[in-house]
Give the backbone structure.
Amino acid sequence: MSASITDSKSAELYARALNVLPGGVNSPVRAMRSIGRDPIFAERAQGAELFDVDGNRYIDWMCSWGPLIHGHAHPAILDAVTAAAKAGTTFGAATAGEVELAEEVARRMPAVEMLRMTSSGTEASMSAIRLARAATGRDKLLKFAGAYHGHVDGLLAQAGSGLATQGIPSSPGVPAAATAATVIVGWNDPDAVAKACAEHEFAAILCEPYPANMGLVPPQEGFLEHLREQADANGALLVFDEVITGFRVAPGGAQELNGVSPDLTVMGKVIGGGLPAAAYGGRHDLMEQIAPAGDVYQAGTLSGNPLAVAAGRATLALLDEQAYLRLGSTTNALAQGMREAASGAGIPVQVSDVTGLLTIFFSDRPVTDYEGAKSCDAEAFGAWARALLARGVYPPPSQFEAWFPSLAHTQDHVERTLEIAAAAFAEVAAL
Ligand SMILES: Cc1ncc(COP(=O)(O)O)c(C=O)c1O
C-alpha cells in the first residue's frame, strides 16, 4: 500500500467498501491485491485516460478489461446509447437492433450463422457448453490449464500438471461432481490433447484461441489446427471462447486470424461496447437446438438489452480495416518499446503481443503455457505495476492479464507510457 493514498478519498471509500462489499470490490482483480496495493476508485474517463476520485490521472491500458476498443466515452457510442435509452431501456421483447447486430456478427464471423445474446461472458460460455452437451449426448469437456471461461462451476477447475488431469474444483463451493467431467491439459501441448482424446469422448474441446487469462500466450504454429482435427476425430465440438479476442485481434476475431473455424463461438466484451452484453453462436443446425427453436433451455430477462445492443452496434460500425491496422501498430509500438525499456534496465521480460493485446511477462524464458506463466517473477511484476500506477500509467494489475490497447491510445500515449515504464523498470532493477 502506498503511503500517499492512506489519507485519500480512495482510502476512505475503500475502508467503507470493506464493510459492504467482499474485499471492497464487485470483481476480485479490481482489488489489486496481486500487486500488493489498494484499489483505485474511478470517477470518470475519456478516451485513453482515466481519473480517480482523488484527481489522479492515468493512461488507461486496462480499459475495463477489454470492451473499450474505442477507449472511454466515445461520442458515437454515447450518442447511440443515449438515443436507445430515450426510446426505452428494456422491453423484454424482440427488437430490430438485435437482428442487425446478429447479421453484422455473421458477416464478420462466417462460423456464427446464428447467435443467442446473454448479459455476461460467463452465461454465454455456460450456455455454449450446455448446447455442446445436448448436441453430442456427451458430458465431458476438455479445457486448458490457465484458461478462464467465466465463473461457471464446471470450468472452475485447474490442472495439477502439464499432463491430462481430472478437474479438481479451484474454488470452495464448486461441487467435485461439477468438475468431474472436465479434463484439463496444458496449452500448446498437442500430445496431451491427443492422449486425452484417445481416452475420453468429449462433448467439447473448449479454448481461448489466444489465451489471455494467464497473460497472453498465443497458440504455437499448428496447435489450433490440431485441436480442430482432434475434435473432429473425437466427435467433439470445437468451442472458441472469443470473449477477449472477438472483434479485437481481427474483424472476425482469432478464428479469422488463424483460419481455423470452430463449431461454436463465445463472445463478450467488444460486442457490448462497454455495456453488459455477450453471446454464443454457431451453425444453424446447432443453434436451432436452443429454445424455443429447439429444447435446450436458456433465457435472460435483459438478454439483447437495447442499450447494450446499441453500444455493440456502434462499436462494430467503427471497426473498419483501417481501425485494425491502427490498433495493430499501436500494440506493436508498445510491445517493441517495452522490450527495449526492460532490456535497457537489465530486467528479463518476455513480451507477447497480437493486435489489441499484449503481456509483459517477468521471465527470462519464453512463456508458452500456464506453468511458464506461473513461474514468472510476480513480485517484480507487482513492484513494477505499482511504480507505473504511481507515475500515472494504469496497467492490468496482475501478471496473468493482458494489456488492452485501444483506438483512443495515440503515439503520445505510447511514448509517455514507455518513458514511465523505463523509469519503473529502473526502480525495480534497483530493488
Ligand atoms: C475468455 C473469457 N471468457 C469468459 C469470460 C467471462 O466473461 P464475464 O466476465 O463477462 O462473465 C472472460 C472474462 O474476462 C474471459 O476473459
Observations:
- The two ends are 17 Å apart (CA to CA).
- Residues 86 and 307 are 10 Å apart (CA to CA).
